[in-house]
Amino acid sequence: MEKTDPHHSELPASDAATSLGRPPLPGWTIAGIRAGRALVVVTIAAVVTSWLTHPWWTAQGWDPTGSPRNWLPNVTLGLLLFTALFGQWICGLAASPQSSWRDGDELVAQTVIGRRRIRLPRALIIRFRVLGRSGTTYGAFVVDRRCRLLVLAGLFSVGGRSRVDRLVGPRTTDGLLRAGGEYLLGLLWLLLTCAGVLVLVGFAAWAIGMLPA
Length: 213
Known about the structure:
alpha+beta, about 20% strand, about 210 residues
């Protein structure tokens, strides 16, 4: 855990241009933001439609595996699962380091719901690492003085350590113990994310009547 020093700029001189304005966002980032917004609209429409037509599709019964025979609730469940998996990014709680930049002493993140700004002076920086099949992904939890949280984590990117350092400041210390702690934090974050997905999808399935009586 680290706290940034309000009297010391942690933005390297080579990256001073990032404090002057937003850098061009990659095309895949713009496409992802638009897709996230569309996914929310489509998922809400599917949930409402499934709930309103509940008597119609439940009359068709369930198959031996316990799934509704009608396609509508099954498609809705798939949309809910997809939305829940990327829920942190869709609701603006998380942002990719590639879609974030420094603006003076503020960290700016372009999210699906809009632009978020967090003042880094006195902010709590908790770094983490996630080990995957393709390598290690680096991220950070950023908590400002108002207890607002932003998770810097890429969806599919591997690496990103230097990018995260440029955004929140260089590491004060490093070592085997610290690396182990960051991997543990990354694992806990993944477990909490999976638990949240299961709870959300389960509750939604119950609410629209997908669970057989």
